[in-house]
Specification:
Elements lengths: L11 H18 L3 H9 L6 E3 L16 E3 L9 H22 L5 E6 L1 H5 L4 H10 L1 E5 L5 E6 L2 H4 L5 E6 L1 H6 L1 H16 L8 H13 L3 H4 L3 E3 L9 H6 L6 H12 L1 E4 L2 E5 L1 H8 L4 E6 L10 H18 L4 E6 L7 E4 H13 L2 H8 L2 H22 L4 H13 L1 H10 L1 H16 L7 H22 L20 H11 L1
Parallel strand pairs: 1-2, 3-6, 3-10, 6-7, 10-11
Antiparallel strand pairs: 4-5, 7-8, 8-9, 11-12
Helix pairs in contact: 3-5, 5-8, 8-9, 12-14, 12-22, 14-17, 16-17, 17-20, 18-20, 18-21, 19-20, 20-21
Length: 489
């Protein structure tokens, strides 16, 4: 018997679910994206409506086709988002405690605007919870400062945080940044033992070793220069402009050494960023929805990977890297970055259904596959968290499989060349140790790709790198070398 035939539609619970499904279906059918666009271009009025994710309970975004607004930033985080953040903080600390037998003293976090616009500030709530403070909400839902949770009630140390905030968060939610900064300053001033307050501990260490004032010693929120975006690391990775990890660490510091907070907005504080990264034990980001993942944009490995390679290089420690998961806010999880990479590889990148879906888009689909594989390489370059078997399977699936090869040859041969060249670079740099048969097959295939691209596409001089990996570093560019010297002191 079919599942639907077994449902008792007279059951009140099923009737409620059925009515809700029908209402959602009605709202989806009422969505008029193209009509609204034409109306707007014609100078017509487009009614306003909220934005958000339907998969996170945002039913009010329907019908779409409205002039959407985001949210009230003075209500971030919401009480429910703070509770999710608190659960995330507890999961993160428990995982690290189980693995290392101690609490992490400093967690470096990549904080994106999607946390605010899609999840009402779950990540912000997590940061506040790690610090041991909670927001104070007014009756209208707006936040009126925060309160410090006594250590006796917290029952653990206050965890220091180093935040690489995204440029969009910086530009659109300055009040959220200022609230976090005020909380960090307040925690640093508490008269508590250093083993129970790692923010205070690290601030006092910086004052002792480097001098200065408490304000400089407690700068924890950093981004690129005002008016600029990106973490810089991804640009160096894609340009092959690095030889070893410390080169990527220096690029990250050079791009992101600008401090933000209450009364300070984009000031050059490269040394302060370098100093605080030395105490980092763990780096972190999180997923909100499977509609977006860590291969979806180079900014993920540029910022999260960048802060990881910088922390490892400066501290000399084996800094761990975790990934939070709030796809189901009632059952949050924290896993290692390597586990998150494996999850996305299995469910998307190597999933035959996903591959077939991409192939339906022809040239664009081939290009997007190539970009995602480039980001796999980017994660390995910055974090060393990608398993060899992943590169093996990418090679076998997209280059050695006859059907997929024909797809690339027909629709976008340059995408296939880029995939092969990135895999060769990973192999040459020692980031991937392929099985011998895979290695030989890849080398042979690349020669074949170069041959038929030149034959079919004609002269590619000046537009086609070929199989060579041209590594360019700061030692070879005097201006860059001078700039790096100034930043690194």
């Amino acid at each position: 018997m079919d599942f639907l035939e077994r449902i008792d539609w007279n059951d009140p619970n099923w009737k409620e679910i059925k009515n809700r499904i029908l209402e959602l279906d009605k709202k989806i059918r009422e969505s008029k994206e193209i009509d609204s666009l034409i109306n707007a271009l014609s100078g017509g009025y487009v009614p306003a409506g909220p934005s958000g994710l339907i998969t996170r309970g945002g039913e009010d975004v329907l019908p779409t086709g409205r002039n959407f607004y985001s949210l009230d930033p003075l209500k971030v985080p919401t009480p429910s988002a703070y509770e999710v953040g608190k659960a995330l903080a507890d999961k993160l600390l428990r995982k690290y405690l189980d693995e290392e037998g101690r609490y992490p003293e400093n967690v470096a976090i990549y904080w994106q605007c999607s946390d605010i616009m899609w999840a009402q500030g779950e990540g912000m709530g997590q940061i506040l919870s790690l610090l041991g403070v909670r927001p104070i909400w007014l009756s209208n839902g707006r936040i009126n400062g925060f309160e410090v949770i006594p250590v006796s009630k917290l029952k653990r140390p206050r965890i220091d945080v180093t935040i690489r905030v995204s440029g969009i968060t910086r530009d659109n939610f300055p009040m959220c940044i200022e609230l976090l900064d005020e909380a960090i300053q307040e925690v640093a001033r508490l008269d508590e033992p250093e083993d129970l307050n790692f923010v205070r501990k690290h601030a006092l260490e910086q004052l002792s070793h480097n001098g200065g004032d408490l304000r400089s010693a407690t700068l924890r929120i950093f981004c690129s220069m005002p008016g600029t975006y990106q973490a810089g690391t991804q640009l160096a990775v894609y340009a092959s402009a690095w030889k070893e990890e410390k080169d990527l660490a220096e690029v990250f510091l050079y791009w992101n050494g600008y401090a933000y907070g209450k009364g300070i907005w984009g000031e050059k504080k490269h040394k302060e960023l370098a100093n605080v990264l030395k105490s980092v034990d763990l780096t972190y980001n999180k997923v909100v929805s499977d509609e977006y993942d860590l291969f979806g944009c180079c900014c993920y490995f540029g910022a999260h990977g960048g802060i990881t390679v910088a922390a490892r290089s400066l501290s000399g420690k084996d800094v761990k890297t975790y990934y939070g998961d709030t796809r189901n806010p009632e059952h949050v999880d924290v896993r290692s970055l390597s586990d998150e990479i494996r999850r996305i590889v299995r469910t998307k990148l190597l999933n035959p259904k996903w591959i077939e879906g991409m192939k339906r888009h022809g040239y664009k689909g081939a290009s997007d596959i190539s970009k995602r594989i480039g980001r796999v390489y980017g994660w390995e370059a910055t974090t060393k968290e990608v398993d060899d078997w992943i590169f093996d399977e990418i090679t076998k699936t997209f280059l050695l499989d006859a059907e997929n090869r024909r797809f690339f040859e027909e629709h976008n041969p340059y995408a296939m060349e880029e995939i092969a060249r990135r895999l060769l670079e990973a192999m040459e740099r020692g980031l991937w140790n392929p099985a011998e048969d895979v290695k030989e097959a890849l080398k042979s295939l690349y020669l074949e790709i170069e041959g038929w691209i030149e034959e079919k596409m004609g002269d590619t001089k000046g537009h086609f790198q070929g199989g060579s990996i041209d590594v360019i570093t700061k030692e070879e560019i005097e201006h860059w070398k001078q700039k790096m010297r100034e930043v690194m002191g």
